[in-house]
Amino acid sequence: MKNIQAVLFDLDGTLVDTAPDLLRVLNQLRNEFKLPEIALQAFRSMVSFGSKIMLTKTLGIEENHPDFKILRQRFLDLYQKHLADSTQLFPHVENVLTYLEQQNIPWGIVTNKLTRHTLELLKILQLDHRASCIVCGDSLPTYKPDPAPILYACQLLKFNPKSCLYVGDSITDVMASKAAGTTSVVALYGYIGLGEDPYAWEADAYVHELIEILKWL
After folding, report:
1. Does the active-site annotation cover 138?
2. Residue of 10, 17, 21, 169 marked catalytic
3. For a designed S-S bond to 10, which of 14, 64, 105, 115 qualifies (C-beta 3.0 to 4.6 A apart)?
C-alpha cells in the first residue's frame, strides 16, 4: 500500500463497541414479548446488519408484519436514550486517531447507522468535531454495500478513492470499499460472526488491532 492520504472508518464494530447498548434495548423488547434474553456473544455478529435485520432475527417479526414499522421506531427511540450507557472505543482507537491528526492525515466515518444516532454518539464520545467527514446510512439514497457513501466521503475529503484506506468489519464494508476503489482493510476484532470466514471476502488487508494500520501510513 502506497500513498495513503486519508483514512475512512466504519463505526460500529470498527471504532466503537456499541453491541452492549444495542443488545440491552433489544432484550428489553424481548422481555415484553416474553422471550428469553440473548447473550452478548451470540448477538455481536448481528450489529453489522442494521436495525431491520436485528429485529427480525431477535424478535421473529418480519418486515411485512403490520406492526414492524411501529416496533422498529420504538427500538430506535429507545436506543436514542441509551446510546452510550456502556459503549466505548475499541482498544487503540484514540491512539490511532491522535496519530492521524498529528500527521495531518484526515479521517472520516462512513456508517450505515442513522444520522441522529451517529451524531449524538460521536458528540458523547467527543469525536464529532474531530472527524473530517461523517456519512451515515441515511445521508444518501443508498448505503453500504453500495459504494456511493464511500465515494461521497472521498469527495468531501477531496481525495481520489485510490489514495484512501477504508477500515470495516463486515462483508458489506469490503464490498463497498472495493467497488469504490479504496484500499479495504478488515478489522478482525469487530463483529464477525462465528463460522464466518473474513478472509473469503478478499479484502486488501486484515488487522487484529486497529493500531496495525499505522504501518501503511
Report:
1. no
2. 10
3. 14
